[in-house]
Specification:
heterodimer, A: mainly alpha, two-stranded antiparallel sheet, B: alpha/beta, Rossmann fold, 2 domains, six-stranded mixed sheet, four-stranded antiparallel sheet, 11 helices, globular
């Protein structure tokens, strides 16, 4: 169970991105994301992605990890691309496809979709790609055949703006994904929390207590592995009393889950009380100013990174203004 | 034979062909009878005691070797009905009081028999509660209103209610005061003697071993280094030293007395009463 429950996506190596101050990284992410959304030339966007790619390579985090995070988003990416192409109707008309829906093609479409429903759960790799190929095949069928009872004919127009905007959206989302993945791969949750705490600490002046919030986050992060271990123990203890969390009807399974949840609540409460006592015994007062064991310090590389970020942002704003004129 | 392990290996990491795994259990051979056994499994932290207990209850499945429990072979390849195994082998975890969850004590104890689809579950639960010494007027109370020691006894009753032939206790005496410890050991002895159940205790407390158990299994770094009568173990000074085990207090004291006073005394006494009688015998003889 613990093998599967690796919390967060942190990839433990010692690259220059890993060594950066978490504050610098958080600020960089913010600035670079703003830049991604400001860029409105596809070539500059490609260039930007190229720079990101070089940064990713230089960290030596395996590319496969990034591709994995794209996989989760691939459905959204493809969907937005298709929607952009279908519904954008300005710019030059590039090409028109005429489709004929006939009883023959309708029958084949229904059969294929039913087959897909049956087969899809056995496909493990490239599910989306295979689905798109099947879909393309069905469209081609409607494009080329016109036999057996014509029902309706329709056409899909592809405009140049649609294609461009579709690519924009996809490339921007890719950029955002790469930037945010780079942050989570290279920064531990605790570091992230510390950085956020220090970055937002000026908010104390207007009465928002960031230190309490960050203490809550760090305690929550700290207790995830502990509680998952406890859950594992309870799970085993109830299993040895014959509880079966995998089989049985839904009603039975809900009954069994209660046997897990109630003890977990009790353990969490007990731990929370113990921790609160321990913290008070060591003089914890929520509102007090306190120093941190992790002293964050900007180094030369952090300053350099931030300079680079501002350069990118400045350049994009300059190009945007220049283009607008 | 109720339980028959041969050449059992277990690792928590997934086994890869070229990687050398850290095996928590290595080539364990073990035979345990379905009744009248009273076994202690001792060893240091990380010696694989708890892992062995979970293998005996089919909560973990070994990487290689044969685990035969009441005629059912547990393996990764073929699925067997684990429920029967778990009904016949009760496992009481460390701090079992955390597994309580029902509204009333009786309902909680009935959880096991209900899962195993046993017919006379209420009778079984009441009998189990009686065995551990919970009075009938408490049956309808919430288990969370009990004291720590009572909660532990209710939790043990929850295992007893399924009427298993073999009972495994993982560190049953941890966190109990001396009186609670004695009561618990008396309960285990009663189960062993009156109901002829096989009891397996996992512990590193030599007092528990000496006062209750008959047979001792010593694990060190996942290897079974000793399996035999407790007399045999405590008389084997080299083995005890090699695996840095401890002697029970009665033996320690008698040994000291024997060396200081230089008298002929049988130091292998496992209870205070026996030690006292032996001392009385020897000293009484010499004074006469």
């Amino acid at each position: 169970m613990n093998d599967k429950m690796v919390f967060g996506q942190y990839y433990p190596i010692n690259s220059w991105v890993h060594r950066l101050d978490p504050r610098a990284k958080l600020l960089s992410v913010l600035i670079l994301m703003i830049s991604v959304f400001l860029i409105d030339s596809i070539y500059i966007l490609l260039g930007f992605l190229g720079i990101l790619f070089i940064i990713v390579i230089s960290t030596r985090i395996p590319i496969g990890k990034f591709i994995n995070s794209f996989k989760m988003m691939s459905f959204v990416l493809v969907l937005t691309f298709i929607i952009q192409i279908l519904f954008r109707k300005d710019g030059d008309l590039l090409i028109t496809f005429n489709f004929q829906l006939t009883y023959f093609s309708l029958m084949i479409i229904v059969v294929t979709l039913l087959l897909w429903l049956l087969v899809s759960k056995y496909i493990k790799y490239f599910k989306l790609l295979i689905f798109l190929i099947v879909l393309g095949g069905l469209m081609a069928l409607q494009y080329y055949t016109n036999i057996w009872g014509h029902i309706v004919s329709y056409h899909i127009d592809i405009y140049s703006r649609g294609l461009v905007m579709g690519s924009y959206v996809v490339l921007r989302l890719l950029g955002v994904l790469v930037i945010s993945s780079l942050l989570t791969f290279s920064t531990k949750p605790t570091e992230l929390n510390n950085g956020l705490d220090r970055l937002l600490s000026p908010l104390k002046k207007i009465g928002i207590k960031i230190s309490i919030l960050s203490m809550m986050i760090s305690i929550a992060l700290r207790f995830i592995p502990t509680l998952s271990l406890e859950a594992d123990k309870i799970l085993k203890a109830q299993a040895s009393r014959g509880a079966d969390f995998k089989e049985g009807s839904l009603k039975q399974r809900i009954g069994q889950i209660v046997a897990l949840i109630v003890p977990m609540f009790i353990i969490s409460y007990k731990r929370a009380y113990d921790l609160a006592d321990a913290m008070e015994a060591r003089g914890y007062i929520p509102d007090n100013d306190r120093t941190s064991i992790y002293v964050l310090k900007y180094r030369f590389s952090d300053v350099l990174t931030l300079l680079f970020d501002f350069l990118v942002l400045g350049l994009t704003i300059f190009l945007k203004v220049a283009y607008a004129i | 034979m109720a339980i028959n392990l041969s050449q059992v290996n277990f690792s928590y990491e997934p086994v890869k062909k070229r990687k050398t795994n850290h095996f928590v259990l290595k080539d364990i051979d073990l035979k345990i009878e379905g009744k009248d056994e009273f076994i202690a499994i001792v060893g240091h932290t990380g010696s694989g005691k708890s892992t062995l207990a979970q293998i005996l209850n089919a909560l973990l499945v070994c990487n290689s070797g044969v685990v035969d429990i009441f005629g059912k072979v547990v393996s990764r390849k073929k699925k067997v009905k684990l429920k029967n195994i778990r009904q016949q082998i009760g496992l009481v975890f460390q701090f079992p009081e955390y597994q309580l969850f029902e509204e009333t004590i009786l309902k909680d104890v009935m959880f096991g028999p209900k899962n195993f689809k046993m017919a006379n579950r209420e009778e079984l639960a009441k009998k189990a509660l009686e065995t551990v010494g919970i009075s009938p007027d408490m049956f309808e109370e919430s288990p969370f209103a009990l004291s720590g020691g009572q909660m532990r006894r209710v939790a043990i009753a929850g295992i007893l209610a399924s009427n298993p032939n073999v009972l495994i206790f993982d560190e049953p005496t941890v966190g109990l005061d001396p009186l609670g410890k004695k009561e618990l050991l008396d309960l285990l002895k009663k189960l062993n003697e009156e109901e002829h159940k096989s009891i397996i205790i996992i512990t590193h407390d030599m007092e528990v071993v000496s006062s209750a158990c008959k047979r001792v299994i010593v694990l060190d770094q996942g290897i079974k280094v000793f399996d035999g009568e407790k007399d045999e173990l405590f008389k084997n000074d080299e083995l005890i030293k090699a695996h840095s085990l401890d002697y029970p207090n009665s033996i320690k004291i008698l040994k000291e007395i024997k060396e200081k006073l230089n008298i002929d005394i049988n130091i292998y006494q496992y209870t205070i009463e026996d030690a006292f009688l032996e001392l009385k015998r020897v000293l009484g003889d010499s004074h006469e």
